[in-house]
Write a structure and sequence with these properties.
456 residues; 18 helices; mainly alpha; 0% strand
Length: 456
């Protein structure tokens, strides 16, 4: 926190939303490593090691980056993670401090407040952490969030406070389960980062992420559609073979959504994003991978993703009628949005936590959709639904990315808890809707791109 304050504090892009996007980006890298080692199981309780066994060396090192951004997020949000049971700090931003607590005490507190599954794998544990983090998306995705959460209601401040603390407890318990000495990892990280960016001050730190993106994805050539070229539609039932288990496929959803967040994390809300070169190529490729993975998961479970999407749209239309939304366009994201009840479970309300991102059913629109929905028809339907209800103003790249990660969290919950296929179809449809809308907002011809990267 001290290193963070010295070098980057005060920048307009260092907001709670940006820091959470950065945290999502680090979660994607953590999950990427876990997918590669999905069969690994946590060490037995009988082990007395104080460091990870050789099987886990280097795999969970991204935990320190996740923890670093979480600490910064908590500080900017005035959430006292040093005292999980305490109320929100009331001091001003300059005087806000964490309660001084030993790491051992934090581990004990986290152990009693976080219920990690006993029979599990490394990948399932990482997905569980992603699920906990996704709870924050519903609270911050369609609203500006000032430092200290001062512009939010007391009720929403309390919800964000509880979610951030639950993320920290989950992270602490996960590090303890795999014998990771988090304080040592954080100290080592601070030394490495300080040496690497010793000359950086203020906004210059932002350029470090640009360097990383260029190094990682510079090999991807920007895809541009020739205006004279006819775009072939993409059938959602085109066969897709999943590599690995269902959990690894869900992990790939996390990776793609998180890597998209990497591109958006340090931009300011309301500022146009430079989508040229590597950025556009990277986002385009990840969205194509995500759509393919959604189709593969649906096919693996015997689901028709197109029909599931149409059914989801119909249900959402009944929930968000045009008349009410036209009277108050913002209602979709305020009083009509049940998903802000972050403590509710899917079992209590299968249509919560994401229906607001689907748009709604209208006979005039549904007549345009064929019996076999394609990527183009789904994209057009989504756009038309949103436009009729004046929702497009909320569809910015960063809002939609947070929305997408929140929907991926719902898929994680359905898969990990073995919920029914009908509910899985609904959540996959939510992810599909967020993805096609994000592509449109970013000016990406997703149908042409997916045919380019994955020709039939």
């Amino acid at each position: 926190k001290q290193w963070y304050q010295r070098r980057v504090r005060g920048g307009p892009w260092q907001t709670p939303r940006n820091l959470f996007l950065a945290l999502i980006g680090e979660l994607s890298e953590l999950t990427m490593d876990a997918v590669k080692h999905e069969t690994l199981e946590p060490p037995g309780n009988e082990e007395e090691e104080t460091a990870p066994s050789r099987d886990f060396e280097g795999i969970l090192n991204e935990l320190d980056d996740v923890c670093s951004y979480l600490i910064c997020l908590a500080h900017e949000s005035h959430v006292d993670i040093g005292s999980p049971e305490s109320t929100r700090g009331e001091g001003k931003e300059e005087t806000f401090k964490f309660t001084v607590t030993s790491w051992d005490e934090l581990e004990v507190s986290a152990f009693y407040s976080t219920k990690l599954p006993t029979k599990t794998t490394l990948l399932r544990d990482c997905l569980g952490l992603c699920l906990t983090c996704s709870r924050l998306c519903d609270l911050i995705q369609f609203t500006d969030v000032d430092r200290g959460l001062t512009n939010l209601s007391a009720e929403k401040q309390g919800k964000i406070d509880r979610v951030i603390k639950s993320i920290f407890c989950h992270l602490t318990s996960l590090a303890s389960r795999y014998h990771y000495d988090m304080p040592r990892l954080l100290r080592d990280k601070n030394v490495r980062t300080a040496n690497k960016y010793s000359g950086c001050e203020g906004y210059n730190v932002k350029s470090s992420k640009e360097i990383v993106i260029n190094e990682r994805y510079g090999h991807l050539k920007e895809f541009r559609l020739d205006d004279s070229e006819e775009t072939k539609d993409y059938d959602l039932d085109r066969p897709v073979k999943l590599d690995g288990s269902m959990e690894s496929a869900v992990g790939q959803l996390v990776v793609s959504a998180g890597l998209i967040a990497e591109v958006l994390q340090w931009s300011t809300d309301g500022t146009p994003i430079d989508w040229g070169g590597v950025r556009r190529a990277h986002v385009t490729h990840q969205l194509c991978l995500l759509i393919r993975t959604l189709c593969g998961i649906a096919q693996n479970r015997g689901l028709d993703l197109g029909k599931a999407f149409l059914q989801k749209v119909k249900l959402t239309g009944e929930r968000y009628p045009v008349e009410k939304c036209q009277e108050n366009p913002a209602a979709k994201y305020t009083e009509l949005k049940d998903c802000e009840k972050v403590d509710d479970t899917l079992a209590q309300d299968n249509t919560s936590s994401g229906d607001g991102e689907i748009g709604s059913h209208s006979p005039r629109i549904s007549d345009e959709v064929t019996a076999k929905p394609t990527l183009q028809s789904v994209t057009a339907m989504w756009r038309r639904f949103s436009e009729e209800r004046d929702w497009l103003r909320e569809h910015t790249p960063r809002n939609l990315t947070l929305d997408l990660f929140g929907e991926v969290g719902e898929v994680i919950e359905v898969v990990l808890e073995g919920r029914g296929d009908e509910l899985l179809g609904e959540e996959l449809s939510d992810c599909l809707a967020s993805s096609v809308r994000l592509a449109e907002v970013c000016g990406i011809n997703l149908t042409a791109a997916i045919n380019h990267y994955f020709p039939q």
